[in-house]
Design a protein that fits this description.
The chain has about 270 residues and is an alpha/beta fold. It folds into two domains: about 1-175, P-loop containing nucleotide triphosphate hydrolases (Rossmann fold, 3-Layer(aba) Sandwich), CATH 3.40.50; about 180-260, GMP Synthetase, Chain A, domain 3 (2-Layer Sandwich). The protein is built from seven helices and eleven strands. The chain has helices at about 15-20, 65-80, 100-110, 130-140, 160-175, 180-195, 230-245, and strands spanning about 1-5, 40-45, 50-55, 85-90, 115-120, 150, 200, 205, 205-215, 220-225, 255-260. Strands 2-3-1-4-5-6 form a six-stranded mixed beta sheet, with helices on both faces. β4 (about 85-90), α3 and β5 (about 115-120) form a beta-alpha-beta unit. The structure holds guanosine-5'-triphosphate (GTP) and magnesium ion. Magnesium ion binds near residues 14 and 34.
């Protein structure tokens, strides 16, 4: 599985990759901007083969001056594109910055499963940091990634770094899960029975059937009598219902509504 390690400059991305590989293969330095282009390394762990893509730190647009820095940022974004999962590395000492939110929302928009990795946790005690509070802050600021797992590691000491790989494996299982159409329709029936679809223009909206059409991210298409009638909150309800029913927690899922195709009739309203 392809895992991109992304984050701001100096978060410790290359250090984490080295620690996982067990050798100092990627260049590490206290100077932000050490890694200039995406570098792939392979690792076998727990019966899985990982392609770890170490990337250049993503800077704020304003501070991107030189041509090579622009290239570095584009290359990191591209690495995210070709990965299945993304490790968003956050420097515990530096805390969460706006740039982290941007990177996270980019990953989310691309439908990548994200693990938030708080690095440099060896400094936590000195900095008076508590895991629960830090996690709470991340959940609050990255509400759109409410389901992403959060892990605390030290690339320097190696503490808990392999936990991250185990988390990646568990998340990948969800991310690549394919659910049969019968199961999807049972889940949809349960969900609509528990909570009726809304009334739109005097008519109750109805789900006709649904199916998973894609994995990574899990994508569902739902045929309905009146797709426009399914407003945001009901869509969110269904998304959460499917997420819960199939144990997709932590992985992104998407739902699209389609109008039922009627034979010999044009779409339109009476
Ligand atoms: N205390 C502490 N320092 C760390 C840890 N991980 C990395 N560092 C230090 O942080 C600095 C940056 O580490 P790198 O691994 O080069 O960071 P990077 O994210 O790859 O940085 P760029 O390639 O510049 O984007 C180095 O001085 C590391 O020694 C950690 O877990 N704890
Ligand atoms: Mg680096």
């Amino acid at each position: 599985m392809k895992v991109a390690i992304v984050g701001r400059p100096n978060a410790g991305k290359s250090s984490l990759v080295n620690r996982l590989l067990g050798e100092e293969r990627h260049l590490v330095s206290p100077i932000p901007g050490t890694t200039m282009d995406a570098v792939d390394s392979f690792l076998d762990f727990g019966g899985h083969r990982f392609r770890l893509i170490d990337t250049a730190g993503i800077r704020r647009k304003r501070s991107i001056g030189r041509q090579v820095e622009r290239f570095a940022v584009v290359s990191a974004l591209k690495a995210m594109d070709r990965a299945d999962l993304v490790l968003l590395l956050v420097d515990a000492e530096a805390g969460l910055a706006e740039q982290d939110l941007k990177i996270a929302s980019f990953a989310d928009e691309k439908g990548k499963a994200v693990v938030v990795v708080v690095n440099k946790w060896d400094l936590a005690r000195d900095r008076d940091l508590e895991a629960e509070k830090v996690a709470e802050g991340i959940r609050y600021q990255m509400a759109f990634l409410a389901h992403a797992p959060i892990r605390f590691v030290s690339a320097k000491t190696g503490k808990r770094v392999f936990d991250v790989l185990e988390t990646v494996v568990a998340l990948a299982e969800k991310h690549f899960r394919r659910v049969g159409t019968g199961e999807v329709n049972r889940a949809l029936r349960d969900a609509t029975e528990a909570h009726q679809p809304p009334v739109h223009r005097g008519r109750r909206t109805k789900i006709l059937y649904g199916a998973q059409v894609k994995v990574a991210p899990a994508t569902f298409v739902i045929a309905a009598n009146d797709p426009e009638g399914f407003h945001f909150s009901y869509r969110r309800y269904l998304t959460n219902a499917l997420r819960e029913h199939f144990g997709f927690d932590g992985a992104p899922i998407r739902i699209f509504f389609r109008a039922r195709k009627k034979k010999g009739h044009r779409k339109g309203r009476a």
